[in-house]
Amino acid sequence: MFSRWSRAATYLYRVGPQKDVVIRRDFCSLLGRGYSKVASTAEVPFAVDSGEKGHANTLEVNLNKMFWAKPCSLALAADSPLRVEEPKYEGIRHIIFKLLLFYSKQSKSIRGANVVYRRIVSQVDKPAIYNVFSLEKTFKMTFSLLVLHMWLCLRRLKQEGNEGVEFGQYLYELYNHDVEMRVSKAGVNLLLTRWMKDLEKIFYGNIVAYDAALLPEAKQEELENVLWRNVFSDDGSSIPDDSGLRAVQANFSPLFYFLKLEGKYKSAMSRYVRRESTCLSLTEKEALFSGNFMFTSLENSSSHTPKRTA
């Protein structure tokens, strides 16, 4: 799935001014150290010191305590300062805006979709989500998290039937425009249409995989595996099985330590995703369509989660 990222990274090295080198380097992290690549290039194993082991123990305690709270509605309280209310006009102004179709169903849906997408961007662009799950903030990572949270909202909207599907289309158009702007900002100014088509394929591929992972007949670990491929793995490879991990442990102890850490973050994100999905299901239609809801705050959690070191 992520083989397309290699082509994007290669292209970014060839074009663009020198001032964009840092941004292009972030884009090139898509070519980073997946399990298969690291295993094939590692030569001399070295031991994990006691400091790292202490870090792992602290990490396990912190992550294992996260995202177990009982799911609840994400709707904002009526007196919340974060609410976005529809403008109310009176008299001649109300008549004019009505003639301009400001109060039409389509106009209201577009305004609501704008608010919903701002909620998604707020969750994805804040440092907290990267700190909690120890993710590097690169173009690929931000894109992966955007797709994940878009899927959470679209999945909830489908529960509202045709009205939700129509609203989801407005939301997708906003997402598509935002991604195009982000790609352009990352340095891709030529052949932009081609890259957007590749990103669209990745988007729909991820959506299908997430949907399948939450089917009643899906295995419990399926969502974790999908998150590993779409978010944590740099090359889209699958997580090694138990026998693979034992082989890594025997021959490449630093890599084994790295994979164990990745597994803990993956499990925590799986609980986060399942909980947010249930919370959105409990969120009222009015709050959903007006955008008057907020994803679970990760600010407090991030201050207690240690960062991974390279």
UniProtKB/TrEMBL annotation:
Xref: Pfam families: Ubiq_cyt_C_chap (PF03981)
Domain Ubiquinol-cytochrome c chaperone: 133-294
Top-level taxonomic group: Eukaryota
InterPro entries to which the protein is assigned, alphabetical: Ubiq_cyt_c_chap, Ubiqinol_cyt_c_chaperone_CPB3
One cellular-component annotation, GO: mitochondrion
Gene Ontology terms describing biological process: mitochondrial respiratory chain complex III assembly
Family per record: Belongs to the CBP3 family.
Name of the protein in question: Ubiquinol-cytochrome c chaperone domain-containing protein
